[in-house]
Amino acid sequence: QVQLVESGGGLVQAGGSLRLSCAASERTFEHYSMGWFRQARAKEREFVAAISVGGGNTPYADSVKGRFTISRDNAKNTLHLQMNSLKAEDTAVYYCAADRKWRWGVLSTEVSDYDYWGQGTQVTVSS
Question: Which of 77, 78, 111, 118 is nearest to 95 (CA)?
Fold first, then answer.
């Protein structure tokens, strides 16, 4: 079972940037589609972005499109989320997740489809 550990969260002013990282414990990381999700206080966990095994497919939630960039380094078992032009509404706990199932090239945006989760990292954007 792969272990996922997020880092890079913190407090930033609106308009600023943060880069989140997610370190995986096993080389099997390179076989999994990966995703970033977030959960604001009193809200359900929601999809942010996903990335295919090879990195060529990267869907985003409409709310972050054009501001966030997901990437992965399979050689280092690491997933990243570059977040620019941050807004107060981006405040949430951010989670990385791994989907071990092959979905014929389609990346899932559903929380229930992801098998492994990190513990989350808090991102707070002050307005």
Answer: 118
pLDDT band at 5; cut points 50, 70, 90: very high
**C-alpha pair distances (Å), 97 with each of 16, 27, 31:** 25, 15, 13
- Spatial neighbors of 123 by CB under 8 A, at least 6 apart, are 9, 10, 12, 18, 20, 38, 83, 86, 90, 91, 92, 93, 94
* pLDDT mean over 96-108: 91
The dihedral over CA atoms of 58, 72, 99, 23, expressed in degrees to the nearest 10, equals: -150
Residue 40 has pLDDT above 90, yes or no: yes
d(CA 94, CA 119): 9
Residue 103 tokens read as: 């979905």
The whole-angstrom separation of Cα 86 and Cα 28 is 32
Least confident of 18-22, 95-99, 103-107, 119-123: 103-107
For residue 6, how far is the Cα from the chain centroid? Answer: 9
